[in-house]
Amino acid sequence: MKLADRVAIVFGAGSSGPGWGNGKAAAVAYARAGARVVAIDIAEAAAAETAGIIRSEGGEALALAADVTDFASVEAAVAQAVATFGRLDILHNNVGVVMHGGPVELDEGAFLRCLDINVGSVYRTAKAVLPHFLAAKRGAIVNISSLAATRWTGYPYFAYYAAKAAVNQATVALALQYGPQGIRANAVMPGLIDTPLIYAQISSQYGSAAEMVAARNAQVPLLGKMGTAWDVANAAVFLASDEAAFITGVVLPVDGGQGCSVVPP
């Protein structure tokens, strides 16, 4: 129970389809580690499903709907979380979206929306939560980035590469600016993870879902198999816990060695 007496607020705590997405697994993993969890998603039903799982396992959870592209929505959710649990200790940012295309194919609206969702979410949630962390003189931020922040992954998604690279540096900026106040900020950089999101946003790049899974598995040096949402969630729990008390400004790859590999995708 390494997170006993902590309150974790998880943005993007739902799943884009049946199964375990990164945010859903993270919210449940925080609860299993002892935290009370505020599960937030743009889809209220998705947040409620995650909160229901936590409660069914004996944990405490609050489900809320919020849009991370709207600061007023984020601020209202944070206020309700504090009103319910009296404090915040962990901010987890999981919201992200993939927009396919290079600069030629991608229209400007889609490009800006990709940045707004992937990077703007980090800005708005931090803006709303940091005052509470500063008052408490402690807090842990975990941002979910992507291996796409640091390398070409074989997919033509220019805006996503740029956005996730920005998430990495935004995490470093948070860590160094607020470290003197006892606030830590780290990021998890997943590689190829088998979640509902890839079937919704990636499978169209392949002939079939089975072809996608086989191709992605083949790129992973560790056992030739994609990771799961639990691999990402377990890393997040560690970074949010006191076991990582002297770790900040780190971008942790959770990628089965793919980031070290010279084998082209």
UniProtKB/TrEMBL annotation:
Keyword Transferase (UniProt): no
UniProt cross-references to InterPro entries, sorted A to Z: NAD(P)-bd_dom_sf, SDR_fam
Alphabetized Pfam families for the sequence: adh_short_C2 (PF13561)
Gene Ontology MF terms in the entry: oxidoreductase activity
Keywords: Oxidoreductase
UniProt record similarity statement: Belongs to the short-chain dehydrogenases/reductases (SDR) family.
Protein name: SDR family oxidoreductase
Organism: Methyloraptor flagellatus
Upper lineage: Bacteria, Pseudomonadati, Pseudomonadota, Alphaproteobacteria, Hyphomicrobiales
